[in-house]
């Protein structure tokens, strides 16, 4: 029972790496780039016993002659070929199990992905309450964007120049004098 559970986790990891970075991938086949990424992310490549060249050679050996991808069965064969090289001090069966343990439950990592900057300079630049001029009109008091309303020049037919402080006081001034 435990072994079938391990194989399920191995299949889940295979599918996750197979679809990584490819919107058209189904998860049934893995290309060479994703195979190399799996080996690097799961620490199969250790730099001493197993190198990226070894990983590429094994990929080429297990895939079909004309194919550019490997299936799950070919993936298992590739792991079995790499296992004795990665775990030299173990028997072949133990090495294969250790290899499966490295991969089980893992998923692709995104190294070098841009993180959101959290510095005071960026906070100051993105604080909408400090915007002036035409940019100030693009946001309401809460800092939420107004969308199209904030970008378009909305005509007010009041007869006053825009942003005139005493707008609407003419009638009260004239009536007050009479």
From TrEMBL:
Keywords carried by this UniProt record: Cytoplasm, Cytoskeleton, Microtubule
Subcellular location: Cytoplasm, Cytoskeleton
Protein name: Tubulin polymerization-promoting protein family member 3
Main localization category: cytoplasm
Pfam families: p25-alpha
GO molecular function terms noted in the UniProt entry: tubulin binding
PANTHER family: P25 ALPHA-RELATED, TUBULIN POLYMERIZATION-PROMOTING PROTEIN FAMILY MEMBER 3
Organism, as annotated: Sphaeramia orbicularis (orbiculate cardinalfish)
Family: Belongs to the TPPP family.
InterPro entries (alphabetical): EF-hand-dom_pair (IPR011992), TPP/p25 (IPR008907)
Residue span of region Disordered: 132-151
Bias-annotated ranges (Basic and acidic residues): 134-151
GO terms of biological process kind: microtubule bundle formation; microtubule polymerization; positive regulation of protein polymerization
UniProt keyword annotation of Glycosyltransferase present: no
GO CC entries: microtubule
Transmembrane segments: none
